[in-house]
Design goal:
Number of strands: 15
Structural class: mainly beta
Distance between the termini: 33 Å
Mean pLDDT: 97
Radius of gyration: 16 Å
Strand content: 35-45%
Shape: globular
Number of helices: 0
């Protein structure tokens, strides 16, 4: 599925509607872009399409999620399907500036440079030092002393860029995708020394 974000902050979606991931309150296929009415009146500044779920960031720093909730990837403390955007209350005290949705997990970056992750924890892709799933957003403490400026959630790994220009990666290392010269998994963020 796909999203478009307009200059006035409205969101349009189209494609496969399974699990309500288009945000229209149903599971219908959309052959043409259709405005996500549930977000009308809110100024959205970023959207991210995962495989079966979606994230939106509004100008006030709030994060909204919808679609399939398996593994807790919607961040609402359960595994329920949400066919309409729902605010992630666990992040209400944070000013989020970026979001990234992937296959089974999600990432959020706050204005003070902290990274939060939730969803499937297999292969360490949440960066908490274990393989536990997280039904609610949890701060990646291993990056607490770094000022992160960008995040990206891959299908089975995660990346963070810090203000000093360093890249950190964690999760499944198959095919060398973490950039550490091997195929080992990393349960905690590790700096990519080759860069």
């Amino acid at each position: 599925h796909s999203f478009a974000l307009t200059a006035d902050g409205s969101v349009w979606s189209w494609g496969d509607g399974d699990y309500g991931k288009l945000g229209h309150g149903d599971t219908q296929l959309q052959l043409l872009p259709k405005q996500v009415e549930a977000l009308a009146g809110r100024r959205v500044v970023a959207v991210s399409a995962g495989r079966e779920h979606s994230l939106a960031l509004t100008a006030d720093g709030a994060v909204w999620s919808w679609g399939w909730g398996g593994e807790g990837m919607l961040g609402h403390g359960d595994e329920q399907i949400q066919s309409l955007p729902m605010r992630i209350e666990a992040l209400a005290g944070q000013r989020v500036v970026a979001v990234s949705a992937s296959l089974l997990h999600s990432l959020a970056l706050t204005a003070n440079g902290d990274v939060w992750s939730w969803g499937r924890g297999g292969q360490g892709l949440l960066g908490h030092g274990d393989q536990q799933r997280q039904l609610l957003p949890k701060k990646v403490e291993a990056l607490a002393d770094q000022r992160v400026v960008a995040v990206s959630a891959g299908g089975s790994h995660s990346l963070a860029l810090t203000a000093d220009g360093a890249l950190w990666s964690w999760g499944w290392g198959g095919f060398g995708k973490l950039g550490h010269g091997d195929e080992q998994r990393q349960l905690l963020p590790k700096k990519v020394e080759a860069l």
